[in-house]
Amino acid sequence: MMETLILKTDENSLSSAKKILEEGGLVAFPTETVYGLGANAFDGEAVKKIYEVKGRPQDNPLIVHVHKDYDIERIVCDIPQYARSLAQKFMPGPLTMVFKSRGAVSPIVSCGLDTVGVRVPSHPDAQKFLKYVDLPIAAPSANISKHVSPVTAGHVYADFAGRIPLILDGGKCTGGIESTVLDCTGEIPCVLRSGLVTREMIAEVAGDCNVFVPKAGEKVRSPGMKYKHYSPNCLTMLFSYAERSRAAEEYARQRAEGVKAYVMCDESLAAALEKDVPSEHILNLGRSGEEIAANLYYKLREGESVADLIIAVAPEKQDGVMVGVMNRLTKACGGDKA
Ligand code: AMP
Ligand code: MG
Fold first, then answer.
1. Ligand 1 proximity of 117 Cβ (cutoff 6 Å)
2. Which of 10, 209, 272, 274 has the greatest CB tally within 10 Å of its CB?
């Protein structure tokens, strides 16, 4: 066991972070989406440690994070014109773009794929960190594999205390769900994982944008999407918006049996359910799509600390940012637990 420090991002912690990374260790750092668990992307042995510490499946590639002035062509090649326009608009930001690899970063980063996902996070501490170390940093979310992604330094600590030396603390993440992953190797960009940069936003800049829908028997293109994910350490149920009164009945039934049941829903549903579910038993996700995204993992982590059972009810609105939110909510609380 090692000591795990949580430090504000300053000259002192950044110089420790740089030393740890140069020696092949791991550093957790904040981004605007979720916290990342980073290693020097050039160092295969260091990258392997990420998989070990997380218990992450060996075929689930990592995203490479760089600062905004880093020339990504040192890492990837064949960047189409539409991707340059997208980078202008959305980088720094919650968009990961997948390009053909130049073979510069360790092949372990991409699990042997010939592509690399690159992201320029906008969180000021992430920028400071990436600039200071001046290395491409391979990083997945800083949680034990399949657990809820972390949106505070405390969440990272809860999963990795004693297993990693340093967590840079940048407060609560404002984005709240992982980046949009966009395949930029084809003529038309293709969303592999939805997030805060929506298909519509991409299509507006790139002219068009596809969404990858896995078909039975087809090879998974964003390997992480096939796993159970984002799951709190308690029982969960997911009801559609149309089934909201059944959710309230289920809450009453479970409470009557002595189960610590909590209802997770958006603000308007919380108000509608007021007479059936007291507000202290509601994990309120907030109002807008952006607010719901920002609160989702925070509330799932809060939920698992108090509840035996989280009864989630999907918001009525399902478009835009909610596509990404529903994807996470379904994997956290619903079926699809393959
Ligand atoms: P995480 O940061 O834990 O959300 O994991 C990163 C996710 O990005 C993975 O689960 C993959 O689905 C996706 N990803 C990263 N690199 C690639 C790539 N080269 N090709 C396709 N998807 C990728
Ligand atoms: Mg993850």
1. yes
2. 209
